[in-house]
Amino acid sequence: MVETLTHTTFDVQAIRQHFPVLNRVVKGKPLVYFDNAATTQKPQVVIDALTDYYKNYNANIHRGIHSLAEEATAAYEATRDTVQQFINAKQREEIIFTRGVTESINLVAYTWARTNLKAGDEIIISGMEHHSNIVPWQLIAEITGAKLNVIPVNDNGELIMEEFHKLLNEKVKLVSVVHASNSLGTINPVKEIIDAAHKVGAIVMLDGAQSTVHLDIDVQQLDCDFFAISSHKVYGPTGIGVLYGKRALLEAMPPFMGGGEMIKDVTFEKTTWNDLPYKFEAGTPNIADTVALKAALDFVSGIGKSTIRKYEDELLRYATEQLQSIDGIRLVGTAKHKVSVASYVVEGVHPQDLGILLDNQGVAVRTGHHCTQPLMNRFGIPGTTRASFAMYNTKEEIDVMIAGLHKAIKLLR
Ligand code: PMP
């Protein structure tokens, strides 16, 4: 269907019609939204799914026998099926709803890692991780006595894979790396990482916060053990995310949080756990946002990820060329394989000042360390200015940013 379209037939103006916020005027200028790696804007279908739930069938799920409870349960569980298909998981029980990538990683840290790691074991992360894929492992290392090792990053912002292979040995029990970097856009060679880690008996967790929206995800083909997804980066609502885990691992893990829904039977003497996936979904979940996540994923699938990717690649190519043509601008993150993230520094100009001046032109970019302080330290900079592109952005918007940059540089230098 739409999947067969090429970028030449990709109608960005038609896509933009689906996103009401793109009609916003900011500081007297049309909004140019280039902060998509922080969070994407929401199409009308997602907004409608939220209001439809609250207007028409708001009810608590699973235990109710009345019609509204049945409708809400069906909608909530339908999202699980959609997520399963979206990432090609083998079973729906392998899809756990969380609040986002941060919670998904913490779930694995406090259940799998806390019970399986001991002093002398090793965890490998990378030098380009988001703080949410660093700090939980530091906490777990402290509790268990395991050691945290880091794959270094080269000047282009790519993982130095020879160093990764050197770090691998039978003491390594877990490798947790970002699939695509939020600060640099780098797409990591995760298949190579997973296959090599499995050879030494380690399991692999992927942070899919940035990859899920841009790349085709097939968890069976990747053979990753855990995969974390954030709805708000895939045109869905905030406050909802996914942990994919291989069934055997999830079955063997203790629960993360205790409460209603995650139990089979409770007595004061002994409590037994519910079946997957409910063992990991304690309490009333975020029903509305889960329901709306389905609308977001259907929206993306309806256009086709490969179609979107081709278009976003074109935007990235154009932005990269334009940025490189400005004197004194240096791109940070020049990996061969990238998602549509352009991070840059301007000689003699603080990213924050630049961000404020661009905002005056209606251009929303992100400035700072992007929750990747160790990576910024690696490059010897306090932060970057980051323009991250989504399917609704245009080359004309990139021109607005470039014109704004020329103006800002003149003022700030
Ligand atoms: N990892 C990466 C690479 C991210 O970009 C983000 C969000 N900035 C996170 C993790 C955290 O995700 P969430 O907002 O879903 O907790």
TrEMBL record:
PROSITE patterns: AA_TRANSFER_CLASS_5. Its cofactor is pyridoxal 5'-phosphate. Gene3D superfamilies: Aspartate Aminotransferase, domain 1, Type I PLP-dependent aspartate aminotransferase-like (Major domain). Keywords: Pyridoxal phosphate, Transferase. It catalyses: (sulfur carrier)-H + L-cysteine = (sulfur carrier)-SH + L-alanine. Signal peptide: none annotated. Residues 32-400 form the Aminotransferase class V domain. Its EC number is 2.8.1.7. Pfam families: Aminotran_5. GO terms for biological process: cysteine metabolic process. GO terms for molecular function: cysteine desulfurase activity; pyridoxal phosphate binding. SUPFAM superfamilies: PLP-dependent transferases (SSF53383). Catalyzes the removal of elemental sulfur and selenium atoms from L-cysteine, L-cystine, L-selenocysteine, and L-selenocystine to produce L-alanine. Belongs to the class-V pyridoxal-phosphate-dependent aminotransferase family. Csd subfamily. NCBIfam families: sufS. PANTHER family: CYSTEINE DESULFURASE, CYSTEINE DESULFURASE 1, CHLOROPLASTIC. This is Cysteine desulfurase.
